[in-house]
Amino acid sequence: MNKATMETLKDQVPEMLGLEEIVRIGVRKMLEIGLSAEVAEYVGRMGGVLTADKRSAIVCNGFHREREIFVGSGPVPVKVPRTRNRNGDKENFVSRLVPPYRRRSLAIDEAIPLLYLKGISGNDMAEVLGGLFGPGFAGASPANVMRLKSVWEKEYELWNSRDLSFARYCYIWVDGIYFNLRHGDSRLCVLVVIGATENGEKELVAVGGGYRESAESWSCIIRDIISRGLVPPRLAIGDGSLGFWSAKEVVMPETKGQRCWVHKTANVLDKLPKCVQKQAKPMIHEIYMSPTKALADKAFDRFINVFGPKYPKAAECLSKDRESLLNFYAFPAEHWKHIRTTNAIESTFATVRLRTDKTRGHGSMGTTLQMVFKLVDAASKGWQRLSGHKLIPKVLDNVKFVDGVEAKEKAA
Known about the structure:
The structure is a single chain. It is elongated, with a radius of gyration of 30 Å. By secondary structure, the protein is α+β, with helices and mostly antiparallel strands. 28% of the residues are buried. The chain folds into three domains: 3-85, no CATH class; 106-159; 171-396, no CATH class. The chain has a five-stranded mixed sheet with strand order 7-6-5-8-9, with helices on both faces. A two-stranded antiparallel sheet has the order 1-4. A two-stranded antiparallel sheet has the order 2-3. It has helices spanning 3-12, 19-45, 106-117, 125-133, 142-159, 215-227, 244-251, 261-270, 274-288, 293-307, 312-319, 322-325, 336-339, 343-358, 365-379, 392-396; strands spanning 58-63, 67-71, 74-78, 81-85, 171-183, 186-196, 202-210, 235-238, 256-259, 401-402, 405-406.
């Protein structure tokens, strides 16, 4: 904003106005300036179009009828410039700033479906947006919310068919969340894959429908992303109840598997009486918090020796996944806190569950997948980069790590 514009605004803003009203005045003035520049550029660009008597065919012709545009600060009155074509052709000025029939900013259009996803029902939307943008706000009816949701469908379709050959994921986290929607004889489970990129950023890789325990469902997801160019990651992290593990051995056997310690701890404790759980829990923590694999193995054996004789089911629950529980020791220590558990995906699912708790019915499988995609995509804005991300290229290049430290080759 130049000095002259600021002085003009200063003259037009009365004292003691509220901040929102001042913002609206500023927005209105900037729209006027922008529209004037836009129509002037159009008339200048069309200057070569002439009438039969060599006059400019495109000329300014006043303004369209004033209408209100809703922006974040509330309604702003706008008059869009109009042009006339002396040749009688239909081509005339169409503003990109304020397109025909637009009644609100694109940011508000994007906010409506996001508010719905966050738990505001279609019936409550008008009241909520009226409080945010003023009582005259229009376009938040349940029918309009549904119309705007159609945008998600297109976004999901494009995203779900994108090329993955450019991406290299070092780690992936996998999990599923159930919905109250029938899928054949069972409830729908939305299967989600999140990956860690070369620079340590977490990205949503895949969202698909199926059965959480089904190797077939997971095989379809994995085969699809591999067919679009995905290079199998170095490590996959998930809990033990997934059909993913069977699918992984067939579709991408080169990827190591890391079982989630949070899920495993809960499963083991569930097989112990409450009177010994207080003793057992810190012993489990000692295993995966050990600085070396050798110490972890000793702590592992100690737990089996203490609880195995009296509680064989608990000991078996822990010991059957021993190798996959300790795979993280072959990766950089800086990454351990990220790859020992599925926390990267569990925290995101908390957002998804919040919305599903608010929604009585989720419609079809397609709309459910789109909703989860949008929710996870929105949650991804707050994802943090992995600690020690500079080591990821080494992991991708198969540099060997022992107990979290890069193994140095001995001199000959």
